[in-house]
Design a protein that fits this description.
Blueprint: E1 23-33, E2 38-47, E3 55-62, E4 70-76
């Protein structure tokens, strides 16, 4: 959007096939990496019925900022304690 009033649907940015699921993926942040020429999405997972902690971080990449993104790292360990990563 250019005016934050009218929006264009560009489709699904992170397909179900690229998610750990079932659960909720939220708080995405997308940046461009000039070294790889890829857009990188850092997002938080809230998994349902998972052997992993109920929340974690994942990294996905795409050729376009609109996706589709494919997850390349799951359950990324964050340094420190508590809710960090923003």
């Amino acid at each position: 959007t250019t005016d934050f009033v009218y929006w264009e649907d560009l489709g699904v940015a992170l397909p179900l096939s690229s998610r750990e699921g079932p659960g909720v993926e939220f708080r995405p942040c997308v940046v461009y990496n000039p070294a790889t020429r890829l857009f990188v999405m850092w997002y938080e997972d809230r998994l349902v019925k998972s052997p992993y902690p109920k929340s974690g971080y994942s990294v996905a990449v795409s050729d376009s900022p609109a996706g589709p993104f494919r997850t390349i790292h799951k359950h990324v360990t964050m340094p420190g304690r508590g809710r960090i990563g923003d």
